[in-house]
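REQUEST FORM: STRUCTURE PREDICTION
Request ID: SP-0412
Submitted by: Lab K.M.
Chain count: 1
Length (residues): 100
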Amino acid sequence: MNEYSLTESAKAEIREIWEYIAHDDEDAADHWVIRIIEALDLLARNPRIGHSRRDLTSRPFLFWPVGKYLIVYRPVGEDIEVIAITEGSRDVRNYLRMRS
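STATUS: Completed
RESULT:
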């Protein structure tokens, strides 16, 4: 079965998303993290369904939206490595550039 791995920063981003939302509503925070995990499972089963965004990066990353969040990942053989999970409203190009 195909799998996904998370970079340390992607793990931290999931925690930060939960903490930010949980400040107001823990059930809503749980809901969003579940939606993200379900999307990661989908991407692991279908590693190439994401979209290339040459306007955001020249690196071989693919992008997948989950509500207002954007999963940034790269296929690695049959699996995927999750690079980032960030808000789509953020300056994603600059965000990815700063992380390299």
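NOTES: The mean pLDDT is 94.
Reviewed by: T.R.
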